[in-house]
UniProtKB/TrEMBL annotation, chain A:
Compartmental location: Cell membrane
Naturally occurring in which organism (per UniProt): Sulfitobacter aestuariivivens
Bilayer-crossing regions: 7-25, 37-57, 62-80, 100-119, 126-149, 172-193, 223-240, 260-285, 297-319
Lineage of producing organism: Bacteria, Pseudomonadati, Pseudomonadota, Alphaproteobacteria, Rhodobacterales
Keyword Membrane: yes
Top-level taxonomic group: Bacteria
Protein name as it appears in the record: Branched-chain amino acid ABC transporter permease
Primary subcellular site in the record, as a coarse category: membrane
TrEMBL record, chain B:
Molecular function, one GO term: ATP hydrolysis activity
Protein name per its UniProtKB record: ABC transporter ATP-binding protein
Keywords from the named record: ATP-binding, Nucleotide-binding, Transport
Entry-linked PROSITE patterns: ABC_TRANSPORTER_2
CDD domains linked to this entry: ABC_Mj1267_LivG_branched
Source organism (scientific name): Sulfitobacter aestuariivivens
SMART domains documented for this protein: AAA (SM00382)
Amino acid sequence: MISERTVNIFLFALLPVTVLAAWLLDEPFIITLATKAAILALAGVGLNIALGLGGLVSFGHAAFFGLGGYAMGILASHAQSYAPLMEVPFLIEGTKSMPVIWLVALVTSALAALAIGALSLRTSGVYFIMVTLAFGQMLYYFAISWPAYGGEDGLSIYVRNGFPGLNTLDPVQFFLIAFAVLTVGIFLAWRLARSAFGLALSAARQNAERVETVGLGPYRIRLVAFVISGAMTGLAGALFADLNRFVSPTMFSWHLSGELIVFCILGGVGRLYGPVAGAMLYVLLEHVLGGLSAYWHIYLGLLLLLVVLFARGGLIGLLSGREVAHE
Amino acid sequence: MSDLLDIRNLKKSFGALKATDDVSLTLRAGEIHALIGPNGAGKSTLIKQIAGGLRSDAGSVHFAGRDVTPLSTVARARAGLGRTFQISSLAMEYTVLQNVLLGALGQDGGVMRFFRPIMARNDLRDRAMTALTRVGLESHAAKRTADLSHGQRRQLEVAVALTLSPKVFLMDEPMAGLGASGSQRMTGFLDGLRSEAPILLVEHDMDAVFALADRISVLVYGRVIATGTADEIKADPAVREAYLGEEEEA
């Protein structure tokens, strides 16, 4: 069997190698697919901090993904219409600058995660799943019924936002931006899992009573993890909106929350590269099977069933031959 | 001698069952106070009420001169109550070392560190390894906790409590499952430990209890029916009738 590290290196290299090949073969659509996979992988890596490390089955991470998307949509739409976002009490103008949008997406989704987490983490198990789902759906219906930013139709942004020194309209350059952000996300998640915080968070998942007995409060630890997790997923949302140059309430929908969970499960819950493998597989299947049938989700469902029944460690567990993810 | 732990008139009922019925007891500096009683006497309930996690119906727990009754488990642990569980309560996916590191981290309090690897924290590692060495588990540090024997898990429980440097130990059957030689070793270890911090010891192993305890309290149906030295308890007719009689003379 191959070691998990080898599998990880392979997975990490797969996206840039694919993009290089697509660039050589002049297949811009493949580059867009790879970019989509990288961005969804980032959202999944974010969710996996809560789900895999913390055992918090959030069925509402679309809330953060959507908030990131709308942070981009709202700022960019004001910039393209030259109408300031706010004039009183102080002037806030729209922007087309990615770094600024990212910062706003991070802060917005972190604050939302703080509020949602503070309430939902008072519950556990199936109630936690339901409460997070409810928050996600609240934002979904709010976005639908908010006409200022397109309501149900969503918001189109005509020109992709800019990054200093790069041409973001070039698919390869935009891919490199998304991939660089993903790399940073994976690196941070990797360090987090090995840090003092990661030790306590994972321990709280395994045995909350044990964590309390050593004088550490599981609630606070989980809340901070939820905020970090939500912020990373929110940043992915901003990138996703930029990829499509479009935001709509579907970014908030529970389907998306479910898809993010599917990435983690397909790839391997609690594994650093689990969501990366899952997101890549998902985008691949969506492209290949989606071309064969509009009902391709049936096959995805079957695959998920097989993974859950026969490969509990997900794709990575299957490849590296280790069922349980641990240090 | 001062009372580090002072339990006053604790009560807890589950429906009609009085699990803890007006229990008062104290733990003095430097002593081992054993709590014995037949199964279902309410020993573990009492430990939960002292350590937190189970709210008492009435009564109070004073710890180091402070009323800790309203405090959570976390706050009581931070105040210096070091507890071990009757049924091992460990992070089973973790290695033995990671479990003691968690204890060291709890003692350190610096949990909001997100970037530096915990394994690079030499201070915590030293603390963790010292605790493992003291209970004799140092050679198992890299083993997965789930792969430990029952007895080794008991030792690990004690090691985690040691990393906390508590002011008081609450130990719920640390000998259970240790076997004769393991039991003997643990007895020797606890004997030395009392000078560091007093121990409230719930134990079924009577040889260990009589060898260790400065004082013994006998709990029957949620009530303390006697408190005294080993000799006093052995001679107490009520205790003999309720508890010791059958087991000791069999």
